[in-house]
Write the structure tokens for this entry.
Amino acid sequence: EIRRYKVDDGEMFSEQDIQTAAKVCIVGKTVVDNLFPNGENPIGKVIRFKSLPFRIVGVLESKGYNSMGMDQDDLILAPYTTIQKKVLAITHLQGITCSALKEEYTDQAIDEITEILRRNHKLKESDDDDFTIRSQQELSTMLTSTTDMMTVLLAAVAGISLLVGGIGIMNIMYVSVTERTREIGLRMSIGAKGIDILAQFLIESILISVTGGLIGVVFGVGAALVVNGVAHFPIFIQPWSVVLSFAVCTVTGVFFGWYPAKKAAQLDPIEAIRYE
């Protein structure tokens, strides 16, 4: 009930099944698709967990993927007594899922659960807890912190890539200006102004940068589609991110191409024509 699992076909195992540790189970849609690819009705069929047979009594409604990209339909549910006695050979519960009546009662519920567990585990006041309680809010905060850290890391990698790429563009433009000094002098001698030379080399710099951005977008979208197809991670490519990438490429081309272009625009036409 807390996880909002609902039986789509068949029925939930009964309290009697829990009391007798019956070898019955309920399966998710993904399990059904993998074990019964020909469209057979799984209800009543027997599947084996190693050598232990389990009879399928129900199939859960499909829930799809969660926000972490995990398939919520890839699961098998069985009575906890069956798992304890016949699968794990333990007498304790490895985890308990609880729900507060309202969100604002979460901290109070945690305090009450802590008190109950400490009493049941016979812990003294000086003893540390031998269990861990995690709320959804704590998990959300942890996830947000991890996401922020990954964002900073990716931004740092992107910044270094931009810097290295920009220095590469600047070097290419310097070489281009040096190799075409006579051409620049010839253009100036027949009437080209400094602004024309500046515009020419800035456009070349922007084209180099935008071409690199175009290749990056193609590889990025292709890699995302491959990950989606292979690992089944949900992806969503926002159009504004593609537009932003081209804008950054343009700014990078202008920023790192400006100095070489300015140098070319300030050449003396006579000295440029004489350049060997």
In short: The beta strands are 7-10, 24-27, 46-49, 52-60, 76-77. The chain has two domains: 7-96, 162-274. The chain has nine helices and five strands.
